[in-house]
Amino acid sequence: MDGDGERKGEFDGKAAAELVGELRQSFWNGKTRSYDWRTDQLRSLARMLVEKEKDIIDALHEDLGKPEMESFIHEISLAKDGCARTLKELKSWMKPQKVSTSITTFPSSAEIVSEPLGVVLVISAWNYPFLLSLEPVVGAIAAGNAVVLKPSEIAPATSSLLKRLLPGYVDSSSIRVVEGGVPETTALLDQKWDKIIYTGNSKVGRIVMAAAAKHLTPVVLELGGKCPVVVDSKVDLDVATKRIAVGKWGCNNGQACISPDYIITEREFAPKLIEAMKSTLEIFYGKDPMASKDLSRIVNSNHFKRISKLLDSDKVSEKIVHGGQRDEQALKISPTLLLDVPQDSLIMTEEIFGPLLPIITVDDIHQSFDIINSRPKPLAAYLFTKDKKLEEKFVRGVSAGGMSINETVLHITNPGLPFGGVGESGMGAYHGKFSFDTFSHKKAVLRRSFGGEAPARYPPYTPKKSRLLKALVNGDIIGIILALIGWPRA
Amino acid sequence: MGTVEERLGEMREAFRSGKTKCEKWRRSQLMALLALVREEEEGIFSALNRDLGKHRAEAFRDEVGVLIKSINFALSSLKQWMAPKSVKVPLVSFPSSATVVPEPLGVVLLFSSWNFPIGLALEPIIGAFSAGNVVALKPSELAPSSAEFLAEAIPRYLDGAAVKVFLGGPSVGSQLLEQRWDKILFTGSPRVGRVVMAAAAEHLTPVILELGGKCPAIVDSIGSSEQKVAAKRLVAGKWGPCCGQACVGIDYILVERQFASTLIDMLRRTVKSLYGDSRNLSRIVNRQHFMRLEGLLKDPSVSASVVHGGRFDSDNLKIEPTILLDPPLDSEIMTEEVFGPLLPIITLEKIGDSIAFVRDRPKPLAIYVFSNDEALKKRVVAETSSGSVTFNDTMIQFAVDTLPFGGVGGSGFGRYHGKFSFDAFSHEKAVMRRQFLLDFPLRYPPWNETKLRFLRDVFHFDYFGLLLVMMGLKK
């Protein structure tokens, strides 16, 4: 019987404290630590992804109008992949890692042991409400923790689906879902957690970190930013626009933290780019994108109004070169291209998180790096070019959470690459083994024997001991021998 | 000197200039740091003597020597650390390549503590410079000679635009915390750690908190020759480092009741032989801490448990090594971090009870275990949690470059030392590269069943099915 979150608004501080207490007890009893428990949970989750695929797709469609393909590729398949990969690698991840020791501590052996942190809080986002809930939970479980998941209330169908489904598949003594909005999240944040992972915006990210500070709780913050795409003139324009478009409108209609936010290209090249993008958009979404079934809608009217406001600014609306259609009833905005909006306009200072794509032009493509570096570091940065030198300059000179060259978005699907931000776009990383590591404490273990005594360590302190110590510290074998036989050395 | 903002502006400019990015610059700074530590050894010893009454041998062993070792390790590893790492690419993403590229975070702020005021100030700088950052250092004002030494020596050896020392107390600390940094590493108390993290939250600055805790030493029954070695290591691990004022120093001992008196005897003898001459011991850092430690013995049931030592020299701020046997578990000396030369010994029915004892308390920075019982050792590793565990020795894990140094829970989070220092001050940037060749139209809208099937195959890593679809043999 679990009463948390069932009656909205009744999940208060007391309920939160009880919940954490329960999970902490469960953790202390050692339940979550065994390999078998962890793999059981992961296998159940993998099964859930297969058995409930239709329910998940339906919920995502209800919350976001997400096309079935996107739900399948981005949310279900990536989650399945995460489970499968973790199951495959977990045994090796859990093994202590032997490390070498030097003559200074001879004889000794050392290793790094991964252990769970304890009770972890996962606060998920609304745009990939399923994936961004499940992926961190999988990581927390793999590392042996107990977990509380707080899905976003802005995607209510997915939130209640998770609340309904999880108890039927995973161990409720250690894995729980709490639904709700600001009051419930606040009640949760007041508790002491062993780690918190938050996916969302930087304003709330600050609140989460400040709350965590009270309990000295480490946090992972997966935030956002304005992800720039630099498009050089030396490109295969057809492929480039397709890859940009699928990363922009093919990802929840631009409502994704790693979606291309704006393009920078050379002034002379812009018209060609715009024409190519227009024709790609027509191939993808037809002549009337508002009628296309392959575009997510805008999540709710708050965000619709927010995005509309970006377009309605003076000096911005006149820069629209394609699209701009809006339907407030249906919460639809068509893929919209803008050319050279003022750099201080709202659309160029706020994260768009929608289907508007401003194109900024520069005289020389190298100027794009300065533009990007003058802004907060984004979660992702993209470059399209055949010019290897430009590519190197970009990788060396631009800082972002991650980058793709001649591609968008896909770098986050590689489980060998860490997924996380830097600066305003966040701190910490996860995915693949990085998830396991982020939810683990890496404990240093040093084993010594009673032999191998170095009297030089102890008082009374003599000049000979000093020499020996100096040599030991420098790993200086000759020095050690000389000091031991009493030979003075300069 | 300039205001905090002006000096920070200079540092930002230095970072923006890009000079810290090249290996040559980083190497030159590390070599300069090595020169500083070697050439200014006497100055360091003086400062530590003035601040803490630290003996030069202790100063070398715990601060100067450690720094030399760490800098050498960084110099020999730097190239490797800086190199981008290739990552395997799943066939599904073919053709593409993936690397993780380490890059500096930018301008980092270091707060060092007063007990190892030179070591804990310079060790993080090794990592920060290796990773290509610029550094603001705020040394503790409770070790003023060391702070002044650093403020004077650092500009003479290191790049003055890339590292700046900020002297002062809490108000300077607050001013620094108002600014935006790319990372903060704080060594100190949990109370101030909370303040630092809360300030960092305003700017979304990631932090490393190196805090403390009550580090227990679990002493099992061991052979008599081993007891001699153990006693030396225990005594040296308690009073050697800054007279007990060390975050990884032994805070208290757990031992089986039947062995307590043997242990106490050995400890007393060893204390006399190692620290009979009080010049080998550091003093208490200041009157406030001296009185705090005096206060721990005020409770009559605590002072009654003193079995060795207990003399306080308030003129010289020296306290002799003091051992207590079974003070009440709810007394302050057993609930607060001692951070001084008082050593409570707690007796247990069986040594196995030490596991639950430690688990019931906040996670410490280090746990020490003296034992030959492999089963007990296994249980400690598996059933307790701490920054580190060291078997049959004390303190020395601090000097192992390949082990991470950091806490968990109340003892902090984040880690450094060795490569972990480089990582602590780096952003690991994920980079994926693709070509324009070989594009799969099935990736793109408009969606249909064929494409859905294709992608199902792709995600099942059904490459054969994939191939068939691509060749048009499977629809």
UniProtKB/TrEMBL annotation, chain A:
<dbReference type="GO" id="GO:0009737">
    <property type="term" value="P:response to abscisic acid"/>
</dbReference>
<dbReference type="GO" id="GO:0005737">
    <property type="term" value="C:cytoplasm"/>
</dbReference>
<feature type="domain" description="Aldehyde dehydrogenase">
    <location>
        <begin position="34"/>
        <end position="445"/>
    </location>
</feature>
<dbReference type="GO" id="GO:0004029">
    <property type="term" value="F:aldehyde dehydrogenase (NAD+) activity"/>
</dbReference>
<dbReference type="InterPro" id="IPR016161">
    <property type="entry name" value="Ald_DH/histidinol_DH"/>
</dbReference>
<dbReference type="GO" id="GO:0006081">
    <property type="term" value="P:aldehyde metabolic process"/>
</dbReference>
<comment type="similarity">
    <text>Belongs to the aldehyde dehydrogenase family.</text>
</comment>
<dbReference type="Pfam" id="PF00171">
    <property type="entry name" value="Aldedh"/>
</dbReference>
<dbReference type="InterPro" id="IPR015590">
    <property type="entry name" value="Aldehyde_DH_dom"/>
</dbReference>
<dbReference type="InterPro" id="IPR016163">
    <property type="entry name" value="Ald_DH_C"/>
</dbReference>
<feature type="active site">
    <location>
        <position position="257"/>
    </location>
</feature>
<dbReference type="InterPro" id="IPR016162">
    <property type="entry name" value="Ald_DH_N"/>
</dbReference>
<keyword id="KW-0560">Oxidoreductase</keyword>
<feature type="active site">
    <location>
        <position position="222"/>
    </location>
</feature>
<protein>
    <recommendedName>
        <fullName>Aldehyde dehydrogenase</fullName>
    </recommendedName>
</protein>
<dbReference type="InterPro" id="IPR012394">
    <property type="entry name" value="Aldehyde_DH_NAD(P)"/>
</dbReference>
<keyword id="KW-0520">NAD</keyword>
UniProtKB/TrEMBL annotation, chain B:
<dbReference type="GO" id="GO:0004029">
    <property type="term" value="F:aldehyde dehydrogenase (NAD+) activity"/>
</dbReference>
<dbReference type="GO" id="GO:0006081">
    <property type="term" value="P:aldehyde metabolic process"/>
</dbReference>
<dbReference type="InterPro" id="IPR015590">
    <property type="entry name" value="Aldehyde_DH_dom"/>
</dbReference>
<dbReference type="GO" id="GO:0009737">
    <property type="term" value="P:response to abscisic acid"/>
</dbReference>
<feature type="domain" description="Aldehyde dehydrogenase">
    <location>
        <begin position="5"/>
        <end position="431"/>
    </location>
</feature>
<feature type="active site">
    <location>
        <position position="247"/>
    </location>
</feature>
<feature type="active site">
    <location>
        <position position="210"/>
    </location>
</feature>
<dbReference type="Pfam" id="PF00171">
    <property type="entry name" value="Aldedh"/>
</dbReference>
<dbReference type="GO" id="GO:0005737">
    <property type="term" value="C:cytoplasm"/>
</dbReference>
<dbReference type="InterPro" id="IPR016162">
    <property type="entry name" value="Ald_DH_N"/>
</dbReference>
<dbReference type="InterPro" id="IPR016161">
    <property type="entry name" value="Ald_DH/histidinol_DH"/>
</dbReference>
<keyword id="KW-0560">Oxidoreductase</keyword>
<dbReference type="InterPro" id="IPR016163">
    <property type="entry name" value="Ald_DH_C"/>
</dbReference>
<comment type="similarity">
    <text>Belongs to the aldehyde dehydrogenase family.</text>
</comment>
<keyword id="KW-0520">NAD</keyword>
<dbReference type="InterPro" id="IPR012394">
    <property type="entry name" value="Aldehyde_DH_NAD(P)"/>
</dbReference>
<protein>
    <recommendedName>
        <fullName>Aldehyde dehydrogenase</fullName>
    </recommendedName>
</protein>
